[in-house]
């Protein structure tokens, strides 16, 4: 039996806006059932990638496939299995929440009315209020109910947690995890909410200038990285290339050790920094790793 | 359902944190042989973590013989396998080494480390 095609696959995907390359020969493949976190600065190409996958804009060159088919040629059936939520998404403000959900229902053959009612209840949505009168958090929750009620096979999320308070974020996350446990849901989420990404994803990728400069299983990445600081008068002439974003300020050297080897580390530090003091080795949160890899010159 | 506490720390693989907390609950006796072990769904929902990650941790606990799956019943804490003393010591070797490295980094004397171990041994 052959393996099913990846749910998302891009080959040499390039998207230009004038002279700007939003996506630059991007190669990305995400198998079914995985949650992938897309990290990177604003303008790195994250939203563009999601928009190409949704066929809201076409590639300049290369190929973007969803469920094995080019995004531009997806059938209605396949399209109706993709959920999309974006920060500040346009919703028809004049509609009441109940009207909005009733409007979506016929567009999705797999719409699950019971599940929709369940989500509306746990999200505490005011069904009789107009969308334009909802708070920001309520609007995002309404968008999520719209995107989850047909039990999508693929969820594309563009900064879904941006500006949400912790309790709303938790409710949304719970709903996503429930769907992931139920079956083969694949998620591609761009986010700056690193703690959520650490807990939610199987894999993360860092996009920079339209290219993936890092891609790895979230747990493996966290396992190999440590945040290191120590007191030393100067930086070494040739620090190991696996030390990311090394710099010195007020006598304190900090870097992310991206290939941490606890056993040999004291000897390595001793060789690089004779007379170093106050060595501290801490777990490196995803936020720190992401910042370090973005500051690192690309080899 | 008997859950076990996990205090999540950013930057530590979630999978390792689940494993650590589960092992601790079983070794300390908070979860006893025969107790139901929480399902992937329960752990994922309760702690807000990826179900694939939970699944991976449970697989390791099973391969270690700490958790078993009974068909139609679910997961439960297994009867503890008997290891020979030298086997047990070998299983711990890399953890002990890591601990000694960390202690030396912090300029702890040997007896201070032993005292700290002693305190934790009695706490569990």
Overall average residue pLDDT of chain B: 86
Largest sheet of chain A: 6 strands, mixed
- Give the overall shape of chain A: elongated
Spatial extent as radius of gyration of chain B: 16 Å
Any low-confidence stretches of chain B, pLDDT <50, length ≥5?
none
Give the beta-strand count of chain B: 2
Q: Helical element count of chain A? A: 10
Order of helices and strands of chain A: EEEHEEHEHHHEHEHEEHEEEHEH
Describe it for me?
The complex is a heterodimer of chains A (about 300) and B (about 120). Chain A is α/β, with parallel strands linked by helices. In chain A, about 30% of the residues lie in helices and about 30% in strands. Chain A contains 10 helices and 14 strands. In chain A, a hairpin with a 2-residue loop joins strand 9 (about 205-210) and strand 10. The longest helix of chain A is centred in the middle third of the chain and has 17 residues, at about 165-180. In chain A, about 40% of the residues are buried. The mean pLDDT of chain A is about 90. With about 120 residues, chain B is mainly α. Chain B is about 55% helix and about 5% strand. Chain B contains 5 helices and 2 strands; from the N terminus they run H-H-H-E-E-H-H. Chain B has helices at about 15-25, 40-45, 50-65, 85-105, 110-124, and strands at about 65-70, 75. In chain B, a hairpin with a 3-residue loop joins strand 1 and strand 2 (about 75). The two termini of chain B are about 20 Å apart. At the A-B interface, helix 6, helix 7, helix 8, strand 14 and helix 10 of A face helix 1, helix 2, helix 3 and helix 4 of B.
Name the descriptors.
heterodimer; A: 299 residues; alpha/beta; six-stranded mixed beta sheet; 10 helices; 31% helix; elongated; B: 124 residues; mainly alpha; two-stranded antiparallel sheet; 2 strands
Give a short overview:
The complex is a heterodimer of chains A (299) and B (124). Helix content of chain A is 31%, strand content 29%. Chain A has helices spanning 46-53, 76-79, 97-104, 113-122, 136-148, 166-182, 194-200, 218-224, 265-272, 286-295, and strands at residues 8-17, 20-30, 35-39, 61-66, 69-70, 82-86, 154-158, 186-190, 203-208, 211-217, 226-231, 243-249, 252-257, 277-283.
